[in-house]
Write a structure and sequence with these properties.
Number of strands: 17
Number of domains: 3
Shape: globular
CATH topology of the largest domain: UDP-N-acetylmuramoyl-L-alanine:D-glutamate ligase
Length: 562
């Protein structure tokens, strides 16, 4: 019967390999999510709590740990009724069926894949060291009956006719893979001092670089929405006359700003344009401590990241920090249409304030109209009016462009020069980006939707008459307690727009949207619910016809897929 026991021993090794593979994919999955939430332990912990049964401790991991603990408590009773070798077969078979598939932690299509940056590698050192301790130590003890490093024999080691202790082996891997996400949290805490030291070095380098260019003017932009769009509009208007350096994409964190200053800013640059984002109180001040603004631009105060701020008043106070950092003679360019923004710096006579808005403020825009070629509107400064024609869509983009006009006007650019520059501005990728795809028109508004922007996008879609009007959306996230209500209002806007097809992504997440749609349109609109954005794309391919207009409103990282 030696072949039989050899087979069981081989099965034990196979069990280790199956669990090792499963642990690897599970580790990679949680590292990926940790990266997507910006390496923030509190946000990762919130995500863990919301995915506890689905990802953190799914049924297969929970059950195998329960079985192990039952055996530890009732081992004598169990062994009176089943042989040890039979029990080994049971565990090995269960492991094959429960852990052979890694589909739960592996996506064939990933929008933002895990990037093994230097920070991930630094995090991986303590993580892999920690995560290997339990499974490999218990595997060693199972096969040898000795405590690793000390080589002390285990008095209760059970191998019998087999050459391994089943319960020690199973416990090591089952429990080890269960606590993987907690190792991520612990590794984040362990590497935090190292990351802080490295970041402080980059900040010091950036401040020194800025000090070496004393004539440089720093323009900083913040706001709940529209920061990136406004930043690029300012850049495109000012580059008509000045040498401009600006942060790319959504680089609005301390390290993103430092990277641009340290690597991209040159001594010949006259203007540096920085986007400053915030998720918590104090974030804007941290950024201003790196690069003090000479000109502060505030787009609006909305409900983005309300979950972390708590209230709009707190958000307004945080955004207002950008204006608070201005010194005598500096300039604030403010959205006159937002009552919270228009009040910023009102009590400071030593700074200049320029208010811009639709039909209000010192610089005004009005008579907005748009079609498949883009948008046009009139811009008025004092007695001078000029028509702006742009490829952009939406009233909020007109507001953002007015802020850019305010900055350019401060630097002395003529209105005609600004209008010419505005006609060449390309839409920001995934932000109301109008594209033609064969016979179809696509409005790509898939980046970080918000209540105002989402409603505007739906209203724009409703004005198209070239074919079916289709919306694909998972709704809005990170709105805290008001998320359900805002998504219901979003659904109402979709219902009022009387669209031809609405594809909602995520059965649970889209319930408020569906309720809102039914309040205003319970029969005419075709509404479909799918579980992922990829399913939505496949569905729209089956329904779309030549001339149809498809709006992609908001996208989500894979961490949010249902």
């Amino acid at each position: 019967m030696n072949w039989y026991y050899t087979l069981l021993n081989t099965g034990a090794i196979l069990f280790c390999l199956i669990l090792m593979r499963y642990t690897w994919y599970r580790s990679r999955f949680f590292l990926h999510n940790y990266q997507q939430v910006g390496y923030k332990n509190n946000e990762f912990w919130q995500w863990m709590k919301s995915h506890w049964d689905e990802k953190i401790i799914p049924p297969n991991i929970a059950l195998i740990n329960i079985l192990v603990f039952l055996f530890l408590w009732f081992d004598e009773w169990i062994l009176e009724r089943i042989t040890y070798t039979s029990l080994a077969l049971v565990f090995l078979i269960l492991s094959y069926f429960w852990f052979g598939s890694v589909s739960r932690y592996r996506s064939e299509k990933v929008k933002k894949p895990l990037v093994f940056t230097a920070r991930v590698w630094r995090l991986s050192v303590p993580y892999f060291a920690l995560s290997a301790v339990i499974p490999f130590s218990f595997t060693y003890m199972s096969f040898t009956g000795l405590v690793p490093f000390y080589e002390l024999p285990l008095s209760n080691h059970f191998s019998g006719l087999l050459n391994f202790d089943l319960i020690i082996l199973v416990f090591g891997w089952a429990f080890g893979t269960m606590i993987i996400p907690f190792y991520i949290l612990l590794s984040g805490l362990m590497t935090k001092p190292v990351e802080r030291y490295i970041q402080n070095g980059f900040k010091k380098q950036a401040r020194k670089k800025l000090a070496s260019i004393p004539d440089l003017k720093v323009i900083a932009i913040t706001g709940s929405y529209g920061k990136t769009s406004t930043k690029f509009m300012i850049r495109d208007l000012l580059k008509e006359r000045f040498s401009v350096c600006s942060t790319p994409g959504s680089y609005n964190t301390p390290m993103g700003i430092c990277k641009v200053i340290n690597n991209d800013l040159q001594s010949n640059h006259q203007i540096l344009i920085l986007e400053m984002g915030a998720r918590y109180e104090g974030n804007i001040q941290e950024l201003c401590d790196i690069a003090k603004p000479d000109i502060s631009v505030v787009t609006n105060v909305g409900v983005a990241h309300l979950e972390t701020f708590g209230s709009q008043n707190v958000i307004a106070r945080e955004k207002g920090t950008l204006v608070d950092n201005l010194e005598a003679g500096d300039v604030a360019i403010l959205n006159a249409d937002d009552p919270r923004v228009s009040k910023m710096g009102a009590d400071r006579d030593e700074i200049s304030r320029i208010l811009t808005g639709l039909n209000t403020g010192e610089i005004q825009g009005n008579n907005i109209s748009y079609d498949t070629s883009g948008m046009s509107f009139d811009v008025t400064i004092g007695d001078e009016t000029e028509k702006f024609q742009t490829k952009l869509l939406g009233a909020h983009n007109a507001q953002n462009l007015l802020l850019a006009v305010g900055v350019a006007h401060h630097f002395g650019l003529r209105l005609k020069t600004m209008a010419l520059a505005a006609s060449r501005i390309e839409p920001i990728e995934h932000r109301l980006e109008l594209k033609q795809n064969g016979d179809l028109f696509v409005i790509d508004d898939a980046f970080n939707s918000n209540p105002v922007g989402a409603k505007n996008a739906v209203e724009i879609l409703a004005e198209f008459e070239s074919g079916q009007r289709i919306i694909i959306t998972p709704g809005m996230i990170e709105l805290g307690e008001i998320q359900e209500e805002e998504n219901r209002k979003f659904g109402e806007a979709i219902g009022k727009a009387n669209l031809d097809l609405a594809i909602l992504v995520g059965e649970e997440r889209s319930k408020p949207i569906l309720e809102g749609i039914k309040e205003h349109d319970s029969t005419a609109m075709n509404v479909r619910v799918v579980n992922s954005l990829f399913e939505a794309n496949e569905l729209v391919k089956k329904h779309a016809r030549a001339g149809d207009v498809i709006l992609y409103e908001n996208d989500l990282p894979d961490v949010y897929n249902e």
